[in-house]
């Protein structure tokens, strides 16, 4: 069994190849049960979450990721997502690899976001607004740059110093902003990665033709955009998976409960989009919306790439 550190995982998951692998596997499909999730109370701060996410390809590999997500770690200067991934031979059950899951989670999440944007955002999208400044947000920038040529990228975070620190890691086209409401009307693509339970993104401020990408919320209590944002995207909504969205996506379940949208307003899932069976955008004036909560298929694709990189190295 080979053990991979976060640094090694990052090295063997280039954006273009990862996005391509995700598209191919979403279109093909693998065995993907709904993940197991447990709430773990933490005294004096937001609850933590423990999750187990398996996925497998019959006759191929099985990957399972175990996560412990601690929102309170943001004020400690520690990672909020702590994860480990194991890869098994799905026929013999032998463990082939173990790897740190922090970098894998961040990269596969951002790559899935960029994959959706590659098929949903306007072809001439030139401005990207990142909402949040954590690990996922830092990966959203290079991932989205892989699928669109952005002239400007803005970053907003609750703590302006975090937004500025993230912007400083990139070139001059990436800058921090302090007023989210002022930035929203100018963004062709809005990608949010936060743990908020109170919607930050106001639908009334979105420009016609914008693409909205929400990747932060992973429970029914969490949401990043208000009902107006979802209502304006009605008919042009793509979810990562129907099962995950209905069970865990507050940005879907709450607007459905409120009557802001109906099930019929969800155009399809990412598999259907990758297969060409559904189309999210038919003209440049429509607002499109992608909601993900994290699917084990994405961990499977990334973990398989990491594991196979070991085999390729040994064969050289």
Describe this structure in words.
- The protein folds into two domains: 122 residues, ornithine cyclodeaminase, domain 1; 174 residues, Rossmann fold.
- It is built from eleven helices and 14 strands.
- The model has no long low-confidence stretch (mean pLDDT 94).
- It is α/β, with parallel strands linked by helices.
- Helix 2 crosses helix 11.
- The protein is globular and about 55 Å long.
What string, H for helix and E for strand, traces the elements in order? EHHEEEEEHEHEHEHEEHEHHEHEH
- Tally of individual helices: 11
The name of the CATH topology of the largest domain is Rossmann fold
Give the low-pLDDT segments.
none
The helix-and-strand class reads alpha/beta
Q: Which oligomeric state applies?
A: single chain
Total strands? 14
Beta-strand fraction estimate: 15-25%
Give the spatial strand order of the biggest sheet. 9-8-7-10-11-14-12-13
Mean pLDDT, to the nearest integer, reads 94
What's the overall geometry?
globular
| Largest β-sheet summary | 8 strands, parallel
Assigned CATH class of the largest domain: Alpha Beta
Question: Superfamily at the CATH H level of the largest domain?
Answer: NAD(P)-binding Rossmann-like Domain
Radius of gyration: 19 Å
Question: In whole angstroms, how far apart are the ends?
Answer: 19 Å
Number of domains: 2
Helix content: 25-40%
- In CATH, the architecture of the largest domain is 3-Layer(aba) Sandwich
């Amino acid at each position: 069994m080979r053990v991979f550190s976060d640094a090694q995982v990052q090295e063997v998951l280039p954006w273009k190849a990862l996005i391509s692998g995700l598209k191919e596997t979403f279109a093909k499909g693998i065995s993907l049960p709904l993940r197991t999730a447990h709430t773990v109370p933490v005294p004096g701060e937001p609850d933590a979450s423990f999750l187990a996410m398996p996925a497998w390809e019959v006759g191929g590999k099985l990957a399972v990721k175990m996560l412990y997500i601690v929102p309170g770690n943001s004020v400690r200067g520690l990672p909020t997502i702590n994860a480990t991934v194991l890869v098994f031979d799905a026929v013999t059950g032998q463990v082939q690899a173990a790897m740190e899951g922090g970098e894998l989670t961040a990269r596969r999440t951002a790559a899935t976001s960029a994959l959706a944007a590659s098929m949903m955002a306007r072809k001439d999208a030139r401005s990207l607004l990142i909402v949040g400044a954590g690990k996922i947000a830092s990966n959203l920038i290079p991932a989205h740059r892989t699928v669109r040529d952005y002239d400007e990228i803005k970053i907003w975070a609750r703590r302006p110093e975090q937004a500025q620190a993230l912007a400083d890691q990139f070139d001059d086209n990436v800058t921090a902003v302090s007023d989210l409401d002022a930035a929203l009307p100018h963004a062709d693509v809005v990608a949010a990665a936060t743990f908020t339970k109170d919607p930050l993104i106001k639908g009334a401020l979105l420009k016609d033709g914008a693409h909205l990408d929400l990747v932060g919320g992973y429970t029914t209590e969490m949401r990043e955009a208000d009902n107006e944002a979802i209502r304006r995207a009605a008919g042009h909504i793509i979810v990562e998976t129907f099962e995950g969205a209905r069970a865990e996506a507050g940005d879907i379940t709450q607007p459905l409960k409120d009557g802001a949208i109906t099930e019929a307003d969800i155009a399809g899932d990412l598999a259907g989009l990758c297969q060409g069976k559904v189309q999210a955008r038919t003209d440049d004036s429509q607002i499109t919306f992608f909601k993900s909560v994290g699917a084990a298929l994405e961990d499977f694709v990334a973990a398989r790439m990491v594991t196979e990189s070991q085999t390729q190295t040994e064969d050289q």
